[in-house]
Structure to design on (138 residues):
């Protein structure tokens, strides 16, 4: 498994766990009674933990085997990145349109913002997952 693929696995796992916890919290009794400040703090904490997990994983993978770390992208890496981005574009576009339609049908602003966040996280997970698939396939 290449260094880039390992980093994709770290990213998809950290995002899935962190944002999964965030969105599950919205559905619990805590989420029904929580203030906006609670969710801003929770969101910032999850973003910080996700970034921290990626930095720590990068450092550990780098220290474990420096020879497998290649900072230059070859043609295959560029194609995989491009394909993953293209795969995530249409779900992102449809999700943003869906959130806009929800807002025009009377959904509150915090609910719409959480829907937009879910769309962005889902599109990023699709991108990461498809890139992992392409690395495994190659």
């Amino acid at each position: 498994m290449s260094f880039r693929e390992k980093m994709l696995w770290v990213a998809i796992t950290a995002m899935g766990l962190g944002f999964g916890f965030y969105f599950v919290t919205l559905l619990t009794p805590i989420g029904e009674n929580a203030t906006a400040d609670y969710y801003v703090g929770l969101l910032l904490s999850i973003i910080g933990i996700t970034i921290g997990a990626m930095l720590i994983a990068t450092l550990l993978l780098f220290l474990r085997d420096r020879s497998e770390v290649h900072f230059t992208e070859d043609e295959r890496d560029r194609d995989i990145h491009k394909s993953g981005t293209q795969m995530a574009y249409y779900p992102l576009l449809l999700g943003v349109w869906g959130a806009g339609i929800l807002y025009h049908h009377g959904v509150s602003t915090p609910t719409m913002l959480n829907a937009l966040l879910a769309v962005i996280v889902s599109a990023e997970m699709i991108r990461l997952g498809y890139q992992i698939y392409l690395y495994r396939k190659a």
Remarks:
- Residues 75-104 form the longest helix (30 residues).
